[in-house]
Amino acid sequence: MQERLRAGDDLILFPEGTSSDGARVLPFHSSFFAAAYSEAAPLIQPVSIVYDRLAGLPVGHSSRAIFSWYGDMELAPHVWRLAQWRGKRVTLLFHVPLDPAHYASRKALSQAAWQIVADGAATLRQNRPATPLPVGTKAAGVEPALA
């Protein structure tokens, strides 16, 4: 990862390290943030992703499994079932980027990123309007711990 960052490339990581039923954001693995503490340290762009419409209606708990691939589910049948549905929508909420230099460790950075993504996803799952919150605001609930 560090080699790609030094080359000027961007990386997309899913730091949960696994998939779930989509009901909540699983804790992030701090090891995914190790590259943020290299000489080519990038800004971290947290993004909340929620599949929130199916057949034009809000996705509820019972219909989340249509989108979610987890456990021992087989991929091909899952994709086939998903492809049969019309009116699907995914919403992405891009949050304010995080500067790793403002966090004492990759664990602190991963916790801050997780909290921001989890809060954004919860808001989107509840079909509430969402806007990115600056880090360190009381509403965001995440204070940077200066190194």
Chain-wise SSE layout:
Elements: H1 2-6, E1 47-54, E2 57-58, H2 75-83, E3 89-94, H3 106-125
Antiparallel strand pairs: 1-2, 1-3
β-strand percent reads: 5-15%
Helix content: 10-25%
Shape: globular
Number of helices: 3
Mean pLDDT rating: 81
Strand order across the largest sheet: 2-1-3
Could you characterize the architecture of this molecule?
By secondary structure, this protein is α+β, with helices and mostly antiparallel strands. The protein has one domain. It has helices at 2-6, 75-83, 106-125; strands spanning 47-54, 57-58, 89-94. The protein has a 3-stranded antiparallel sheet. Strand 1 (47-54) and strand 2 (57-58) form a beta hairpin. The protein starts with a helix and ends in a 22-residue tail after the last helix.
Which features characterize this protein?
three-stranded antiparallel sheet; 147 residues; disordered C terminus; 23% helix; 3 strands; alpha+beta
Summarize, please.
By secondary structure, the protein is of the alpha+beta class. Helix content is 23%, strand content 11%.
